[in-house]
Amino acid sequence: MVAVALFFVAVGVLTDRPATLLVGVVGAGMAVYPRLSRPPTVELELERRLGDRRPASGDPVTVTTSVTNTGDRTLADCRVVDGVPAMLSVASGSPRHAAVVRPGETTEFSYAVETEPGRHQFDPATVIARDITGAHEVETSVAAGTEIQVGDAVPELPVREQPDGYAGRLVTDEGGSGIEFHSVREYRPGDPVGRIDSKRWARTGELTTVEFREELPTSVCLLVDARAPAYRAEADGRPNAVAHCLAGVEQLVSALSETRDAVGLAAFGRELCFRAPGVGADHETALWQLLGTHPAFDATPPGHVRAGGGVDGEETDGDLDRQATLLRKQLGTDTQVVVLSPLSDEGIVETIRTLSAAGHTTTVISPDVTADGSLGRRLAGRERRMRLRTLRGADVPVVDWDPATPLGTVLLDEGRRRWSA
């Protein structure tokens, strides 16, 4: 462009033609301007408003996103891609928006999402700003910490009876205080008056004490398989298996927080993540913060190019054996493990069998993201079914979860079978 502009300037001067000279000057200005301009300064604040923060499953929710320019320069070309949660799909409208935003001005846009059961955290919005010539581009992200909790909670959890008889909310084989009759024994000094069998005493004059099956709290660690092979999806544009696992974990955390059970979190993937089981409001808050911020709980595959540009962090700690060894060292001997994994390779199967062999009562919840179609997809489905049989043959119960069915419904059906292996 510079060469052409200079050519027209020369012709205009030599031939004394003002119009040709003007064309050359304008062209030269357009060519030089991008070199004299600077990249735009991006200072933004983002706010999201939800039509309903606690909708029922399947109800569409309107999301209104507002972006305010808090800087002192006009953004001539500001493009926003909102961070829709991986498990939610857009029902109407678009999470993409473009506008000219002057200092102090606010631009907003709305769209609707289809809801799925669970607690969903919005990702930071991706913002791309270009100068008026398009020669300079700045990409950044703006977070607002928005979440939406969808009903259809888990009615029953996959805790199982431990080898020593302790089973949390499931009854044990030992007598004590509880709700289900266990046995009658001879009265001992110090027994609670309320547990004396008054009818027997009135009938025979013999003092006896009624014992019930005792309920004891249990310790549960929810383990997510977020390694690169687990980021499989049924089809392009569909949520991947890790996104389904994270949605399941969120429902389990919500359900466990309403019990006396101690719950912890762990994940295999970019790096090992572990939070020891605990109870209380502070512990629950820490679990939600971990789910929302730790890179191991990212529904975006490692190395994935995000909408609007930018590459997500590569997986840096993919040694499954080493991560599994570190996890076993940190798990308590009485901690049950609930593994959420699509069972996409043999490595995770061997790790689960090792956890079970180490004495940890282990249950697997496996979202099925295989589908009929190509030969490769059919082969992946067959391999997964073989892994299910391998685990069940090792006395590890596996919940085969079709993500089209709410997890609460699946676990309720399994609960009716008493979590038999």
From TrEMBL:
Residues 183-362 form the DUF58 domain. InterPro entries: DUF58. It holds the Pfam family DUF58. It comes from the Archaea. This is DUF58 domain-containing protein.
